[in-house]
Amino acid sequence: MNIVDIAAPEYVEVEVDERLAKVRSIFERENPKGIVVTEDGEYAGVVGEKQLMRSRMEDDTKVSAVMKPAPSVDRHEDVRETARLLVEGDVKIAPVYEGEKLYGIITVDQILEAVLDSLDALTVAQIATEDVIGISEKDSVGSAINRLRENGISRLPALDEDGQLVGVVTTNDIVEFVVRDQERQGSGDRAGDIDRMLDIPVYDIMSSPVVTATADETVQAVVERMFDNNISGLVVTPDGEDTVAGMVTKTDVLRALTFTEEASMDVQITNVELLDTTNREHIVESIEQVADKYAAMQVIHAHVRLHAHKEKLRGTPLIQCQIRLRTNEGQVGGSGEGYGAEHAFHVALDKLERNVLEIKGINADEEYRGQLLRKLGEL
């Protein structure tokens, strides 16, 4: 399937020096799926509604300050490749071209709606993230913001003192709270207002009750639930329990669309533009070398996520790298930080190899115990 019948020709185009006030009014008046930003007639980036709403910049700020670069997509591109481009670009919308002419836009939701009927072959367990970062409901909003930023994520399960799931806090919850509070308070000591808001407990802004999924549900069912509730992710819980077993998001589903059954390993890189002294070929080769050392573990899909911190060393940013492998033995990952993408990747790769080796060791121990028990049974 390609995106020729999925891409929407309805879009709004503005120049990079357009004021945010006008762009906000366009969203309110025309409700477009996204806005394409151009500079002297050439494509420059995109702006989504949530992206704009999260910005607290003044109305006179130029749209170039909030636009995000996104890979351009050919109108006849395959859905699988389009999904990969969106995930690797860490964007929800992208411009669609027909030849050299801008045709329209493509969004994550448009793709998921188009392939919804085929998602019943996948289960949540196959695509969900198991290593979930949460937060206590008593922790401050400031702590939640730091945790979201440090891990490059958009949502945190909120837990009570017994570790039970009681809510979810997202970047959107925080932005909406800040906007509502400022509208209510009006003008005043902004610095003092921000300090006060950062000290408020997560309990006061989290979403509750939580919309959840179970590992054995189909991906089709959970995507429909996301659409019905106008949310982008669900907490995965054991059936009938309020503990966190994982997280599944629209991005996870989009990433699953790129999985292949080919012999070569499918590797995906989010924020690929952060690659500096290394490249995609080196990353793929390095992961394949780790996988080849442990032949019993078949890697179906690898995801490498890069996230840049503000901290720099002699101009080189501190990068966080997360590697996650989807294998026939389950999911395994590794993460690490370093100055520059290459350093961060190899720190994460070392951690990944240790974790893979641990899984192999556990499996070997279980096999040995099984052989021993069988021999004892023959005596």
Automatic annotation (TrEMBL):
SUPFAM superfamilies associated with the record: CBS-domain pair (SSF54631), Ribosome binding protein Y (YfiA homologue) (SSF69754)
Q: Which domain of life is it from?
A: Archaea
User: Per its UniProt record, what Pfam families does this chain match?
Assistant: CBS (PF00571)
> Which keywords are on file for this protein?
CBS domain
Among InterPro entries, the record links this protein to:
CBS_dom, CBS_dom_sf, Diverse_CBS-Domain, RHF-like, UCP036983_2CBS_MJ1404
- Every copy of the CBS domain together lies at 66-121, 128-184, 206-264
Please identify the protein, giving its name as recorded.
Answer: CBS domain-containing protein
Which organism is the protein's source?
Halorubrum laminariae
Q: Tell me the lineage of the source organism.
A: Archaea, Methanobacteriati, Methanobacteriota, Stenosarchaea group, Halobacteria
